[in-house]
Chromosome partitioning protein ParA (Brevundimonas intermedia), 226 residues
Amino acid sequence: MPVITMSSPKGGAGKTTSLAVLATQLARNAPVAIIDADKNQPIVTWSKAPGFPANIEVISDITDANFYDRLDDVARRTPFVLIDPEGTANVISSLAISAADLVIIPLQASQLDADQAQRALVQVTNQERAARRRIATRILFTRTSTAIQTRTLRHLKVELADAGVATFETQLVEREAFKAMFSFGGTLELLDSRQVSSPDKAVANARAFAAEVVQVLKDLEHERAA
Ligand SMILES: Nc1ncnc2c1ncn2[C@@H]1O[C@H](COP(=O)(O)OP(=O)(O)OP(=O)(O)O)[C@@H](O)[C@H]1O
Ligand SMILES: [Mg+2]
């Protein structure tokens, strides 16, 4: 425990990449399990390349029928469980939301993507009503530009704040290093500047994101205890 689910019915929103970045940073301090619930098995493939952290366990072959059994088993013995559903709303993506302590919705800064994020939020609301509990949810802006805050991004932030939707302060910037983790295998820390530009900046970005996730989880824990 806790369980973190990446969610967005939009294909290519950045779920798998953000999850991998988060998992490798969390794994620097504690064992992590990833449930690869995407039938294309991107995390399974990445985990087979050299340099994959020994304390990240990858669980695959997830079905509607075995989802809770596999999750309960791994959550009992692992400090962090991260779930990567596929890019269309389906039964498993709903189950993954219903089981989450924190849902992260990656969002690229375009109005079209924001409409998709709205669908992701509706999916969370439906699971909240079914489970009769609040499910903490945060939007993560991904693939943002290092140099500028675009007008669309500023506009979306205001829109989300007005709608009472929480966003991470940290954004995952568009960086070659985040793609390179998958092509070279292993972690960001293993990339060097001959393979990809500014791996150190990607590492700093990844650490800021993971630190914020840990803080959000702590805050939620305190809220629950209060
Ligand atoms: N921060 C980033 N910097 C650079 N490239 C990124 C970043 N985030 C995602 N990408 C790229 O965007 C594409 C889609 O990302 P990813 O596979 O993580 O999305 P996804 O939501 O998991 O997709 P699917 O719905 O198909 O599972 C990939 O090519 C990935 O390398
Ligand atoms: Mg994916």
Remarks:
- The pocket of magnesium ion (ligand 2) is lined by residues 15-16, 38, 42, 84, 87 (CB under 6 Å).
